[in-house]
Amino acid sequence: MRDVYFQGVGMVKCGRFNERIEINAARACINALKDAGINWREVQAAYATHVMQGVSAGQKVVSQIGLTGLNVTNVENACASGSTGIHHAYYDVASGKYDIVLVVGFEKMQKGVIDSNSGERSYEDKMGMRIMPGEYAMKAQRHMYEYGTTPEQMARVSVKNHKNGCYNPYAHYQKELTLEEVLHSRMISDPLTLLQACPTSDGAAAAILVSENVAKKNNNRDLIKLIGTSVQTESVFEEEDLTTRTANTAYEMANVGPEDINLAEVHDAFTIGELLHYEALGFCELGESGRLIDEGVTEISGSLPVSPSGGLQSRGHPLGMTGIAQVCEIVWQLRGESKQRQVRNNPKVGLTHTQGAGGVCSVSIISK
Amino acid sequence: MRDVYFQGVGMVKCGRFNERIEINAARACINALKDAGINWREVQAAYATHVMQGVSAGQKVVSQIGLTGLNVTNVENACASGSTGIHHAYYDVASGKYDIVLVVGFEKMQKGVIDSNSGERSYEDKMGMRIMPGEYAMKAQRHMYEYGTTPEQMARVSVKNHKNGCYNPYAHYQKELTLEEVLHSRMISDPLTLLQACPTSDGAAAAILVSENVAKKNNNRDLIKLIGTSVQTESVFEEEDLTTRTANTAYEMANVGPEDINLAEVHDAFTIGELLHYEALGFCELGESGRLIDEGVTEISGSLPVSPSGGLQSRGHPLGMTGIAQVCEIVWQLRGESKQRQVRNNPKVGLTHTQGAGGVCSVSIISK
After folding, report:
1. In chain A, N or C terminus with fewer CB closer than 10 Å?
2. DSSP 3-state assignment of B247?
3. Alpha-carbon gap, residue B293 to B216, rounded angstroms
């Protein structure tokens, strides 16, 4: 297998769009092409990752840029759609099938809650608890019971990520929140308040993966390499197992451990999620995530910054885009291009983590 | 790249199901596993191909069989979804990433017409002509004008494929139709009558692709190899170009030409489609497809049998299943297992062809 590099990444600002989603998705592609210094005609295959944009949405995006006959495949894996696209693009390049592959993730969101889509038919289902806020609230309650984690610690994830989003021009929200504002916002599903849930955002992001010979041609920047990628499906009820096993596969492939990660973008759809993922990704011991956020370890200024982009909480969570937006952030950070939200100490290794309904998880490890 | 084999295939009977689609999709997987002599725990990755079965539908299917942590990816490419899944599974095995990959295609269809999803905003759109029967009718009118193709020749495709379906226990319909019945059924979109449109069917099919070392272990049957696969996106308005270019890529990869094909399953969503594809696939010259059907060349007893399964017209067209069902038929035919519908003369090379809304086409070439 060959080495695989991120030659270019691009986004559009998350928010609520009036334009058709394929227009914004095409803009994200064009931004990524410009960043890569690659001509559209050189792109050999594309993955279009989205959850609910309808039949052949990827073909519509590509039609906006120009039809070149390339292979376009629509990929859906719930919230892990974008990272699943990255995974497949990686192997297309690693195997020598292609030299230049585009992944574009996009979503125009509908209103309303998303159900957990567990496929189960249980009393919880009938009682309306198997919607996403309900699922995460149950996990939060259990974590509080097991480890003494507090509502304040969860709320602090929202405060941190909203602060980070203020420095990201692509984030949906550029607004700092106080701990009190988060804690005293409307209760959604005890203990999770409204400002601990990711907003409903539209968005599009793109990444271009290339082989070494392409990456080394006319490139004056740091080469950014994808060194680990894993997509796994496990029971939705064993979140720690799912993320841990997926991460371990990616760590093994990349030949690194959690101690080598300099920054990460993790799936903070709800604040408790980010805390759970600290533990499952091996950033701390089980039950220690509250301490991590309290001590500021995962702030931009901390020793292991998490979601400097603002994360799902502030940047937004257009489902099919999220995995690609995370990649954009890690690439910019490793290149040192993140300006006011640049993490310190010249980071070398970043991690992305997404988790989707139905029990799917993806972890990527990126290095320079 | 390594050689890739179909170790097992399996289906459920097409029709209108009451069961949840994931139950039937799981049955198709189990049938394919049995046919392959492979244990579920040996499967390393899965593609779930469907168009409108909702978020993480593939994960739900896999959950029915047992969660083993494997990578499950949902793939959507309109009517070419199944064959796109086959394409990606091929490269997963060819590249050495995996040895055993499952592709399961399934669909529970909604009622009503499917729009052409061209993404275009034209007068044709506004006039309601850009639904599938309208699109195919316009192509039929043009073919009649250009080449003198007749309504009888188109109707003969339906007669042939319905006759073939009578011998396929998995087909939705086992009912012969006369030319008169087809021609005098209700006019849908001139010149296409109701019995020239594929029915609305639910269904599921699965295929297991393996590396040579797996294929050669404990196998007393003919080894069936996937030797060419191509997925391309082009303008939806240039159907001949789209199919021709995609087929040429697959022919080149397989190192065969149309003259080497012993049987084919082609995309006969509407009867005119099958005729157009004869030409685009190189089975005859432009404008000669009417003659081909008149002369019985594409009957099961002919020199180039097309859609011995009954095709979309009679077997049915559950969107995400179709490409996999075509593969099932070719595998059974090459193994000589197709009983009453077995094509003659010990066929060596088969072709599958699917075409999807949005301008996507896939061609696979399979040999023993």
Report:
1. N
2. helix
3. 39
Residues A209 and A195 both lie in one domain: no
**ipTM of the predicted structure?**
0.92
- A246 found inside a domain: yes
Is residue B186 assigned to a domain? yes
Nearest to B360 among A56, A75, A245 (CB): A56
CATH number where A39 lies: 3.40.47.10
Residue to test with chain B: of A19, A55, A211, A236, most B Cβ within 10 A: A55
Q: Is A166 a catalytic residue?
A: no
Return the residue in B49, B53, B60, B76 with the most chain A beta carbons within 10 A, the one to mutate for interface testing: B76
pLDDT in tens, A228-256: 999 999 876 666 689 999 999 999 999 99
> pLDDT: is B112 or B25 the higher one?
B25
Catalytic residue among A50, A162, A267, A317: A317
Tell me which of B14, B79, B284, B361 is the catalytic residue.
Answer: B79
> How does DSSP assign B17-42, residue by residue?
-SS-HHHHHHHHHHHHHHHHT--GGG
Do the bridges between strand B192-193 and strand B187-189 make them parallel or antiparallel, or are there none, so unpaired? antiparallel
| The domain boundary residue, chosen from A223, A256, A275 | A223
pLDDT in tens, B154-192: 999 999 999 999 999 999 999 999 999 999 999 999 999
Separation CA B229–CA B227 (nearest Å): 7
Closest chain B C-alpha to A20 CA, distance in angstroms:
10
- b/e per residue, A153-192, with b = 16+ CB within 10 A? bbbbbbbbbbbbbebbebbbbeeebeeebbbebeebbebb
Does residue A168 share a domain with residue A73?
no
Same domain, A312 and A192: yes
On whether residue B117 sits in a domain, the answer given is no
Interface A-B, measured as beta-carbon pairs within 8 A, has a size of 145
Q: A97 and A188 share a domain? A: no
CB within 8 Å: B51 and A55: yes
B175 domain-assigned = yes
Q: Are both A240 and A327 inside the same structural domain?
A: yes
Question: Do A232 and B97 make contact, defined as CB atoms within 8 angstroms?
Answer: no
Predicted confidence (pLDDT) at residue A120 exceeds the cutoff of 70: no
Q: Distance between CA B79 and CA B265 in Å, rounded?
A: 14
Q: What percent of chain B has pLDDT over 70?
A: 96
- Per-residue pLDDT reduced to its tens digit, B109-135: 988 777 666 655 677 777 777 788 998
Which chain B residues contact residue A52 at CB under 8 A? 55
pLDDT digits (tens, 9 = 90+) for B275-326: 999 999 999 999 999 999 999 999 999 999 999 999 999 999 999 999 999 9
Secondary structure (DSSP) of A213-263: HHHTTT--SPPEEEEEEEEEE--TT-HHHHHHHHHHHHHHHHT--GGG--E
**In chain A, which residues have their Cβ closer than 8 Å to the Cβ of B62?**
233
Query: Are B55 and A22 inside 8 Å of each other by CB?
Result: no
Residue-number span of the structural domain to which B240 is assigned: 123-198+228-367
Q: Which residues of A touch B95 (CB under 8 A)?
A: 1, 91, 94-97
Note whether B236 and B316 are same-domain residues.
yes
Assess whether A317 carries a catalytic annotation: yes
As for how many domains chain B has, the answer is 2
